[in-house]
TrEMBL record:
It comes from Sinomonas halotolerans. This is NUDIX domain-containing protein. CDD domains: NUDIX_NadM_like (cd18873). Residues 19-171 form the Nudix hydrolase domain. SUPFAM superfamilies: Nudix, Winged helix' DNA-binding domain.
Amino acid sequence: MPSALSRGVANVAERAQLPPSLAISTVIFALRPGHEGCPTLWMPLVRRVREPFRGQWALPGGPLTAAESLEDAARRNLAETTGLAPAYIEQLYAFGGLRRAHRDEVGAQRVVSIVYWALVRADETALAGQTGLAGEQENVAWHPADPAHGGPGTLAFDHREIVDYALWRLRSKIEYAQVAYHLLGEMFTLAQLREVHEAVLGRSLDPANFRRQLKGTPHLEATDHYLEGGRHRPPRLYRYTGPRSL
């Protein structure tokens, strides 16, 4: 009869031969006031209630079921954990490093994560944690995305690496893609559009140069509306009329 030790060794070997488990995670960015009052990129995180990494913050996500597409799984996991339903969501990357989910457990089944990313408007951020599954609400909170702005330096699993990659992608696309408009409402001022670029890039931009660079920008349309309520001449409102892809 095999000893308990030999059975344990056999179980470890069997787990190591299992095909990788597939999971879905999502990085969501939104603009919220930072510690100094300036708009800053924030993201919702979920506190883990079980091992591994119990008590640590992680990206919202979960397993992929056999009866749903990758995007459907991402949207379902978001609804269950955060209550958020981004209008646009895009696949970011696949992360499949060896033992990435159980770094201290020898022979653990490998986990491959298909990661999505999404951008939501500031007025949608209040929904995070309000309409998720019962018991999840107190474990969902917004955090600055960048540690330089007070965000968490470490996250569960390899999620800090994932967030850093998503930030790099966002910063590399802000100059030529239409990502900024996903963080704004239907109408916005040029100053608000500049604030989005500054928050993503992490640096100040000269207002006059920024306005000149916007000249001739396709799909940026001036409206007949103005932003009221300020002490100075109300600025004109603009709208984006182009495709909504990231």
